[in-house]
Amino acid sequence: MSQQLSPEAQRNIIEGGRKGGQTRAEQLGHEGYQEMGHKGGQARAEQIGSEGYREMGRKGGLATKDMSGQEAMEQKGVEVDESKYKTAS
């Protein structure tokens, strides 16, 4: 069951997430934060492999300032196999 949040609740969640990320960055420092991102990228690469990255890049490469990759795919009739990079949550 999905529940809609009030605009105030949405703002609070966003602000809390921003502050949490800021605090974590301060704790880790620049190098620690970079290392965390590197490890996350490595883990993702292991999950989806080179073929998954290729498909994800095709979709991202279609994105423009005015249009998301998804919108561009639909408009241009380009097919991207999202199953190669989407994981079950």
TrEMBL record:
Residue ranges of the region described as Disordered: 1-28, 56-89
Biological process (GO), any one: response to abscisic acid
Basic and acidic residues: bias regions: 73-89
GO CC, alphabetical: cytosol
Pfam families in the cross-refs: LEA_5 (PF00477)
Protein name: Uncharacterized protein
